[in-house]
């Protein structure tokens, strides 16, 4: 980043990253411009409204992070802001969980960016925050992801954050930037980054829907697609089959949004894609 970022700029980048992930097409099992993927309770317009509803939360998180240390007081404030953001999201979507995972991932990173002024510092700061338990305690009702963590012994969203978002730093960002440097269009680079996440992440959303067998199939198919000589054709076939199986890699999508957020702040402009934003508003 070449200039200080205001909370408004950070929140704008956060919402743009989540919208860009939503609009990316074709995504295996996920809502996109083709349709609802493996879902029956949400569509693209809902995802875009949900992303916009989180702007005030991201801005508040950035205000909270600015000039702060990753101590317990900030962790508790982040938790309270996150719960309020989730309430607004659910009110916007009629009770459908569209972006709980993205709110956690991007919200922590937005707080870290405001606190440290850098994307590399943001990752370290976010991990330090995530290691502290929220004084408000765990939610009374376990999410599908939390149940999958307990059943299958995987890291889940919290473990990913505590570890410093290794799938963002060491998987998605290198693939995204490498593909772009190699001449790939932004959309193709983002798809390759998503598939690299699906291929390597123990995605709790896939585990919830398809168990260990479903996860193995998704990871294997993602690797095959990345290696295919005709990537565009292969990713369409993968997307169609994942839709039919109703296997939705929501954890990978959340981490892609985090990677797009970090990447956008590392580039000359904080705008992820003006064309994508125009497309988003056309769906609202």
Question: How would you describe this protein?
Answer:
There is one protein chain. With 284 residues, the chain is mainly alpha-helical. Helices cover 71% and strands 0% of the residues. It is built from 14 helices and no strands. The two termini are 31 Å apart.
Q: What is the CATH homologous superfamily assignment?
A: Triphosphoribosyl-dephospho-CoA protein
Strand content: under 5%
**Series of secondary-structure elements, N-terminal to C-terminal:** HHHHHHHHHHHHHH
Total number of domains: 1
Quick one: how many beta strands? 0
Assign the CATH class: Mainly Alpha
Largest sheet features: none
CA gyration radius, whole angstroms:
17 Å
The general outline is globular
CATH topology: Triphosphoribosyl-dephospho-CoA protein
Low-confidence stretches: none
Give the rounded overall mean pLDDT: 93
Give the helix/strand class.
mainly alpha
Gap between N and C termini: 31 Å
CATH architecture: Orthogonal Bundle
Number of helices: 14
Q: What percent of the residues sit in helical stretches (DSSP H or I)?
A: over 70%
